[in-house]
């Protein structure tokens, strides 16, 4: 009994390194990883779920006839029948011996002894088999079931609208208005589950005309990013209304609104896909259009970064884990070196990574469907010169779309803004153009002068 359970897992206790090399399997793992919270904001905001599900179905169909499992299970299944025959012979050997002894000398063996031996052998075999099942399989299957039922219980707390978003012919941007339903101009909001009783936004009111360039400024925690989350309907207001082209945002289908929106935020990151798909997925309908992908990379200043990669646009900067080193193998230096070769990654600077991520947004902006662009602190790893060039390219790619910037280094942006919203403590305390707010000599003028002194 013991031999059967030990022999069936030849790799247990051995030093080995394994690596997955099937392209379809690796792509399946990469697509599965995009369900992580890390990528949630961009997958939702970019309406990427349909594309990702279709791609997952393709690799799932390609893998349906290929066995899947851990290395021990696959190893055992790949062995010949000889070890199994030998282990069965060892398990049943005592019974065969007693049986032969009973035939040759019946007086030495009773039927009761024979029955007890058979029962004991069966129970021991079952015990070891069940123990093996509990140790190796049960935890894995339990985790899978737990994830499955957790996903079944997920329900969107955001009620979808029924109205499609169809911008007027020739319209390049969309208009936005934040107001209270009884025309007392204020919107308030607090994050669900927030411990603080203070609203993240309080008595906020403003209007943005279609095609305007808007810059939101203010200290950390003033509510700048929160406003963007309401305008893109990641959350609904606690009180008040957000209007898009004159209609409450809740009336529109969420997918329709996100299909006309492009965003670039500090939360965006690289996907575990090729560089080409990382950029092209910004516009799923053009994901294989290499000319557009190269154009988007150029706009973001990422073309030189990609040229330095040996595999160019086929490079996967942050691939899924493909190799595993057994516990026993961790003390084997030769195996460790092989493992490190298998998991080799390409390192890029924070600024280079942000340019690569920005390429995806430019790819999205190359689509004529985009009417609204939001940019939220995407350049923390860029030097001032790099940030200036990125924001300049974003402004020039706007082409009449409604665009909102949130950034700490705003001095080079606000001079071009049609509207500036200055926030403090969750409220809009000033609004107007750059010159109007400087003349007012309030909070905006103070923030602007501080920045001007810092760079002189």
From TrEMBL:
Keywords: ATP-binding, Hydrolase, Nucleotide-binding
Domain ABC transporter intervals: 182-450
Gene3D superfamilies assigned to the protein according to its UniProt record, in alphabetical order: P-loop containing nucleotide triphosphate hydrolases (3.40.50.300)
Superkingdom of origin organism: Eukaryota
GO molecular function: ABC-type oligopeptide transporter activity; ATP binding; ATP hydrolysis activity
Entry-linked Pfam families: ABC_tran (PF00005)
The organism of origin for this protein: Suillus plorans
Name of this protein: P-loop containing nucleoside triphosphate hydrolase protein
InterPro entries xrefs: AAA+_ATPase, ABC_transporter-like_ATP-bd, P-loop_NTPase, Type_1_exporter
